[in-house]
Amino acid sequence: MIELEVLKKVPLFNGLNEEHLRNLQTRIRLHKVTKGTHILKEGTFGDQFYLLVDGCVQVTKDLVKGFDADQASTEKVLASLCGDALPTFGENGVLGHGARTANVIAQTDCILYTLSKAEFDSFAVQSYQGAFIFMTNIAKKISENLKSTDDNLVKLATALYIAVQQ
Question: What is the C-alpha to C-alpha distance for residues 60 and 62, in angstroms, rounded to an integer?
Fold first, then answer.
């Protein structure tokens, strides 16, 4: 079982009181993966989110769609995440809609914890307030990710404009 002190440090759980965290603690499951494992694959569907507590992962996205090119040559690294920061990813799984928007690949052996949509829904039934706080934190994170994506899109469009002008 994940330690309560670890949960208190996870940014996605900011604002949850100790009772909420204890309730979540019983619902979160240990998940170990080995180096090279695709934890999430872009375009697939899943029903859980992940908390990385040990190891490092890379978040990548395939930038070329519809061509038979080797994906490794068209993939861009968006981020590198390590367990010391207690990052989370795959929050859409708890929301219950949408395909995974990126790949997450273990760069080392990793220890993660997962929370499924079913377990979150059960938590929400027991604590509307805790679920509201948690969902608000997810919304903030998704909003930050969207801003970063928008910034990258502007850079890409600028580079394409410059290339076309020459």
Answer: 7
Alpha-carbon dihedral 79, 142, 109, 77, rounded to 10 degrees: -20
pLDDT tens digits along 137-165: 999 998 988 888 788 778 878 888 888 88
- What's the number of CA atoms in the CB half-sphere (13 Å) around residue 20? 19
Place of tokens 């994506």: 149
Q: Which domains does the chain have, with CATH numbers?
A: 4-165 (2.60.120.10)
Query: Alpha helices, DSSP H only, in 33-112?
Result: 71-74, 92-95
The token duo for 164 is 């076309």
Q: Tell me: the pLDDT tens digits for 14-24?
A: 999 999 999 99
